[in-house]
Amino acid sequence: MSLNERISRVIEYSGFTPSEFADEVDVQRSSISHVTSGRNKPSLEFIIKIKSRFPEILWDWLVNGDGEMLKSELPSEEEIVEEKTKPTSLPDLFTLITDEEEEEIEEEEIIEKTSPQESPSESFKTYGSKANEKISDSQRLEKSTKEIVSQVIENQSNKIKRIVLFYENGKFESFEP
């Protein structure tokens, strides 16, 4: 059986007319006509589009004509539902909580609801020590004015050679002490 005949058989299997099949697989209608008549051979892209739309068709059969057209062991609807309900290899956030932790969380929620608080968004938990909260020099965002003034005084050990003032009208003045 030639590749063109196998594609014709896939069209029959799909239950679509050739024009509907072309729309379904997202190819030009004329290409379906040319392939099924034997005028042209299908491109790899054409075959990939058929395979992606009909995953139950076996590659070996579609490309080489070897074996059966359809996968013999298609999962039943029950197996598909079972696969969807199986846990994935990585647990999600909520499967990591044990029953004991869940009870503790529920108790905390009850305490929060029953105890009076100044504001519901406030949290009275402390995290770490004060030493960890201190910002290092590399993270400092602004310096105090005392530090800036002391830096300017330190930098003034050099003598000023010239001061130049530039005016908006383009003129300038130069002063030398």
Automatic annotation (TrEMBL):
Gene source species: Chryseobacterium caseinilyticum
Biased composition (Polar residues): 114-126
InterPro entries the record matches: Cro/C1-type_HTH (IPR001387), Lambda_DNA-bd_dom_sf (IPR010982)
Domain HTH cro/C1-type: 15-62
Protein name: Helix-turn-helix transcriptional regulator
Compositionally biased region (Basic and acidic residues): 131-140
Chain positions covered by the region annotation Disordered: 102-140
Coiled-coil positions: none
